[in-house]
Write a structure and sequence with these properties.
alpha/beta, about 210 residues
Length: about 210
């Protein structure tokens, strides 16, 4: 298991990792810190904490390193310290309104992975997903998403020194579900609703804890 973890670590953007041993202030608009919604976010997000050299401080209001809005927009998050360059009046992460939805915990885990500096696992150059690009663009367009955004969400990242590439991990919580209708040859992949061994290995590599 340990050897397996060392060889499956996904993709990260080291240029946007947070400073080691940082406490990130995470603000949730319009919610008291004891609100069931906030507790659901914390329950999911804090699953990253045993594997990183960071701490989370959840607060109410609009002032934080990370600012979360609950709405019906597409879930999304700034990648790592990219949140710091966003206007202070805007959220850096969007999460669904319904914290009782079965996918809510998965979405929080995924978006907090981005917040920590992880990129999409399915965009690893070694994933070799045989996308049917015209179909992808058509589906995204029907959902009001541009072709450029579809490409940014799905297609392989360039292999360069800017990114931290470890071997491809199809079990990553950072991997999208792949609909076989959007690929050649009915290639498919289900969502992983839990942090994988590869996610843990990536997190420990990105934010190593001091030796005890």
């Amino acid at each position: 298991s340990a050897a397996h973890s060392r060889h499956r670590r996904n993709v990260g953007d080291p240029g946007r990792y947070w400073p080691q041993n940082t406490t990130l202030k995470i603000a949730l608009y319009e919610f008291d810190v004891n609100d069931p919604y906030v507790l659901a976010v914390k329950k999911a997000a804090c699953q990253w904490l045993p594997h990183i050299n960071l701490k989370f401080e959840f607060v109410s209001g609009e002032e934080g390193d990370v600012r979360i809005a609950a709405n019906n927009q597409r879930p999304q998050s700034a990648v790592g310290t990219g949140a710091l360059s966003m206007p202070e009046s805007t959220p850096t992460m969007s999460l669904p309104l319904d914290h009782t939805d079965p996918r809510f915990e998965y979405i929080v885990l995924h978006e907090f992975g981005h917040m920590l500096g992880a990129l999409h696992a399915h965009q690893h150059p070694d994933a070799d997903i045989p996308w049917n690009v015209p179909k992808v663009h058509a589906v995204y367009r029907r959902n009001g998403v541009s072709q450029a955004q579809a490409n940014a969400d799905l297609l392989p990242l360039p292999r360069n020194t800017a990114y931290d590439y470890q071997p491809y991990d199809s079990d990553s919580v950072m991997h999208y579900e792949i609909d076989p209708r959007l690929t050649q040859g009915n290639w498919a992949q289900s969502e992983s609703w839990a942090i994988s061994e590869g996610d843990i290995a990536w997190a420990k590599n990105a934010y190593p804890r001091p030796a005890s």
